[in-house]
Amino acid sequence: MVAVMDALNPSFDRYHSAGFAWRPPIKQLERRIAWLRRSFGEGLGHRPNRIERDAMWRAARLHIIADYALSDPTCDANTQVRLANCADRAVAKMEALLERNAPPEYRPSLDEMLNAGAAE
Fold first, then answer.
1. Cα 46 vs. chain centroid, distance in angstroms?
2. What b/e sequence results for 8-33 when a residue is b if at least 16 CB atoms lie within 10 Å of its CB, and e otherwise?
3. Is residue 87 within 8 Å of 65, Cβ to Cβ?
4. How far apart are CA 62 and CA 83, in angstroms?
5. Using one digit for the tens of pLDDT, what is the confidence trace for 64-75?
6. Is the pTM here over 0.70, yes or no?
7. Residue 26 CB partners (closer than 8 Å, separation 6+)
8. Burial 81-104 (b: 16+ CB within 10 A, else e)
9. pLDDT, tens digit, 9 for 90 and up, residues 10-68
10. Which of 49, 78, 88, 118: CA 20 to 30 A from 55?
């Protein structure tokens, strides 16, 4: 699991132990992580806090690792399935966290609805 978590860290060279046959370009990965984080946080309605940002970053990173493992022909099926499941769990945890921390939906009180009806 350590090799999976460090797979996108440029200071580690553990691609072969994670099942990767080649090292993808780092700038391309950084752009894709940024794009995924923006897409995860689009519908929030508020600025994400530190915990939400970390959850979005982790889900984006694991999603990219799983994508590269699926596109690598030298990666065995067991590793591909494990990485895909890990990424799916990270996205599910992130969605649950973001849903829990969402601001409450505004619902007018009975007095406001009656006053709005009387004003018309």
1. 17
2. beeeeeebeebbbeeebeeeebeebb
3. yes
4. 7
5. 888 888 888 888
6. no
7. 8, 10
8. ebbbebbeebbeebeebbeeeeee
9. 444 444 455 555 566 677 878 888 888 888 888 777 788 888 888 888 999 898 888 88
10. 78
